[in-house]
Amino acid sequence: MEDVFLCRIYTESARLSRHYRLLQRDSKSGSRSSASSPPARIRQNGVVIPPTNIPVPVPDGWSATVPDEHDVLDLTQLLHSHETTAIGSSSASVEGVSADVCGKNEVACAHMMVRDANGAARGWASVHDRAAGRVLGAVTIDPELDQPTADDIAASLYAWTEQAAIHIGRERGLEQTQLDSGTFADDKRQQRWAQTAGLKHVRSWWQMARPVVPAEADDGVLPDPRDEVFVRQVRRGKDGLPVELDLRIVHDLLEASFADHFNSHRETFDEFIFRLRSDPGHRWDHWWIAEIADEGEADPKIREMLPAGTLVGTASEGDGDAPDGTYVSYLGVLQSSRGHGVAKALLHAVIADAAERGRNRVTLEVDVDSSTGADGLYLALGFEPKYTTQSWHKNLPVSS
């Protein structure tokens, strides 16, 4: 599988022997991706949007409606209450909720909001066409709602996410799709709702954090990469936009690196770029590529530097008055390049960058049962688990 993706990296424009020259040419010309325009509402760039007319049963006097910009503050407070009750803190922000409901992510997501007879926000469900055969579904219920009513609203919203996921699968022409939902490990109420809706707990994830100190921005404080490894940011043109060749290298590296990981689903380049650009924390200068010397060349003076790994980060807003941090959205290393300290070099790069920006932490997510031993690397570099989340899945047959 990795060879297929490597072939895509190295054969485009016959660039294996001209890798640097092409990068330099594209950087000078300011070449950039044309795949960043939002997809159409129904289907474009691989994104499918479910209909908003799926019925949601609610108690008499209550309402179930599609939220808009006027509902963002209430939804943010609802999400904040849910997260604070579950783990004692929250990353909910008006900017993030707004991006999902009526901003950059609007064309990739669909939402349903439930208000009680007094107009208070009590429930919220969303679906996201994440990749072919995989739909992310989220259900948030007011933690102060009494249990019988909360159970009924949760059942209605989980049913809505299932029907929306089936619609997405139908639009994609699939026979089956996966509904992928999450819970906090200590939120037994949410887990009960997910189980009642037919989902199964399939994986657990550590949410890890590492403190960053200002001195780590200085040269020599963090170890340098090994001699054969070079880490750089994605190249950008004079207009500040990234060159398309580097973006495609990042995409192909991640597709190859995660091919042997749990629940990996292929994602097209267009889908990938649009989704990551839609993140409120997106910054082009948070994307790194690691290269490694071609060991197949005997003469070290003419060895080609080949793509080996990549890290994509985002700016992470602090809770309340807390400082901002950096979140590692993706860290992937090709199987053939593992064992050379590539992942460690990329992490040191993002830690130093966070320190230079005055941030106080770097955070990430790791599979508790990772087959690559990534959790051990993170622990060795000073990352600590803060809380655990769970993935709950349900495979849905898609009727025509």
Spatial shape: globular
Order of helices and strands: HHEEEHHEEEHEHEEHHEEEHEHE
Report the end-to-end length measured between terminal Cα atoms: 31 Å
The CATH homologous superfamily name of the largest domain equals Gcn5-related N-acetyltransferase (GNAT)
Number of helices: 10
Order the strands across the largest sheet as they lie in space: 3-4-5-6-7-14-8-13-12-11-10-9
- CATH architecture of the largest domain, by name, is 3-Layer(aba) Sandwich
Could you name the CATH class of the largest domain? Alpha Beta
- Counted up, domains total 2
What structural keywords apply?
alpha+beta, 400 residues, Aminopeptidase, globular
Brief write-up:
With 400 residues, the protein is of the alpha+beta class.
Describe the structure.
This protein is of the alpha+beta class. The protein has two domains: 176 residues, Aminopeptidase, CATH 3.40.630.30; 161 residues, 3-Layer(aba) Sandwich (Aminopeptidase). The chain has ten helices and 14 strands. A twelve-stranded mixed beta sheet has the order 3-4-5-6-7-14-8-13-12-11-10-9, sandwiched between helices. Strands 1-2 form a two-stranded antiparallel ribbon. Helix 1 runs antiparallel to helix 7 and helix 3 packs across helix 4. The protein is globular, with a radius of gyration of 22 Å. The two termini are 31 Å apart. The N terminus is likely disordered.
